[in-house]
Amino acid sequence: MGKQGKDTEKSTTTSVGIIIPAEWDASGNPLAVALSTYGEETYIVDFSTTAGKMLGRMIHKKVKVSGHVKTGENGKARIFVEAYEEIETPPLLSPENESPIGPP
Question: Is the pLDDT confidence value at 5 over 90?
């Protein structure tokens, strides 16, 4: 029997979270992104799919992501994105006047 590492584990998941930078170049530009979920899980976004590449442009956006997850030998989960959708969030309201907080 051959050795099977953790990187052979595969499951499909759908999660909601925020896209965050996960790796930077020397100038501080993001090279990789991750999905940080409300369940405090983090998935490195794999750029091998078109949907994954698109998420690289959505830093700080709230999204719903579906895809296959593989956990590498380093223990980090990587998501191979099959589909995603941006989730619009309403502006924060000021309790005094119920108008959006921040500049117009």
Answer: no
